Amino acid sequence: MTGFDCRWCGAPAPRPVLDLGEQPPCDRFPPVVDGGPDPCWPLRMGWCRECGLAQLLEDPGIPEQARGVEPAVLVQQAEEAVSLVAAEGWLPDRGGFLEFGSPHGGSWSLLLTHRGLTPTAPGSASDLVLDCFGMMHHPDQAAALRRRVGVLAEDGVLLVQFHSLAAILRADQWNALRHGHFAYYSTPALVSMLGELGVVARRAWRFDLYGGTVLLACTRRGTPDDSVRALLAEEAALGVGDPERLRALQEGVTRDAGSLRSWLAEGRALGRRVVGYGAGSRAVPLLCAAGIGPDLLPFVADASASKDGRRFPGSRVPIVSPSRLRSRRPDVVLVFLPELLPEARAALPWVEESGGRWVGVDRLPPWLPRQREGTRVAEVTRAGRNG
């Protein structure tokens, strides 16, 4: 299978629907002393007219380097999901489980062992097979899904959680496209893929994580319930199977990149101290597309100690420890991963205590004149404090 054949059905030449040009790997953060240049490869999303799978077209063949810290919101979502699945009877009372995890975290292993399940012995069928954001990291989607179905016991349950293509469309999350993420599942496409292997999606749950994630409970027999049927209809109406609707993501690249650059440039002209928070992979193509460097964004703080002293690829914006925020006393902390806002505000209360505020990159407020509050200079915006 070549990089330009469908990663599921093998049909030739999936249609390009989103092109981010030449981009550096989104998870490779060089040391700040490394002046580059950074290697870049084409970054394009294609859509297969035969099976409907949205997918990464090119593959530079570089192993992922996970340096991030598992965010609290991901841990909380896993706990909520396990509770829901167990309460509705989709979690076996006992038996073995096999988890296909993600290099970015999100494991359910401890949660499952606390409920009496045990890891499946190698070579044995599993009563519960779990894939939590894992399968998208495999270039050969057909082989990856067959492996998961192949270890499922005859009466077992397969749980598959994924960042929904519908959420990407709904929120114009074009920067969800990245090297190493080979598939972007719509529910109709994934349900069809499962069906080809004799597995039925029986129950669906939705979560707000990443703007919209879906968890499917699947078995070898049975029929979909109303939650699955409703999700299939909703996503079809949104246009997950329409290449023209997918191509609309391209419009967001120029719009979002231009808006961010203009906003940062205006803030600099007004003398505002703006820094970033959350050196996640989604920020890499955004900074590159906007042409933002340390002149507009002096640094981005991140909770991962392994990223401290490194920099963004392409844009060369330094990454520092959150402790640097205290000495910088920023007017605005720009959060590149909106789901981190509650966690960051709770961990770093002195940002707001010293007069700064948090702003999500998806909610850039207008710059307004400063007002005096005693001896402290503060800025007031119509948007108020984000989060």
Helix content class: 25-40%
Which word captures the global form? globular
Whole-number tally of structural domains: 2
Examine the coordinates and then state which fold CATH places here, giving the name of the CATH topology of the largest domain: Rossmann fold
Task: Return residue spans where pLDDT drops below 50 for at least 5 consecutive residues.
Answer: 372-387
What is the averaged pLDDT score? 91
Largest sheet: 6 strands, mixed
- Counting DSSP H or I runs of 4 or more residues, the number of helices is 12
Would you state the CATH class of the largest domain? Answer: Alpha Beta
Element string (H = helix, E = strand): EEEHEHEEHEHEHEEHHHEHEEHEHHEEE
3D architecture notes:
This protein is an alpha/beta fold and 387 residues long. The protein folds into 2 domains: 20-247, Rossmann fold; 251-379, NAD(P)-binding Rossmann-like Domain (Rossmann fold), CATH 3.40.50. 28% of the residues lie in helices and 22% in strands. It is built from 12 helices and 17 strands. It has a 6-stranded mixed beta sheet, with helices on both faces. Strands 13-12-11-14-15 form a 5-stranded parallel beta sheet. Helix 3 links the parallel strand 6 and strand 7 (152-163). The protein is globular and about 65 Å long.
